[in-house]
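Researcher: I'd like a structural prediction for the single chain below. Treat it as a standalone chain; there are no partners to consider.
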Amino acid sequence: MEAVVVSYRKGRRANHPQQAIVSVKGVKDRDSAKKLVGKRIKAFTKKGKEVIGTVTGAHGNSGRIRARFSKNLPAELLKAEIVE
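Model: Treating it as a single chain, here is the predicted structure.
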């Protein structure tokens, strides 16, 4: 699964750096995004460290997903491609 981290999950007063909004290539609607719930995501930093996340749900109607990561997602991974 190829994907791009779009943003952190944000609220009116706070960002949630442990949760991210991810756009997956080939997923265009909410129903196909819901099928990915429970899957694992791996993101690699520039130093080669691995950050593991889990898909928790769909975000909106355009096929984006919410993912919760084990540690805070570094800012260098925003707009970066992730694999798996």
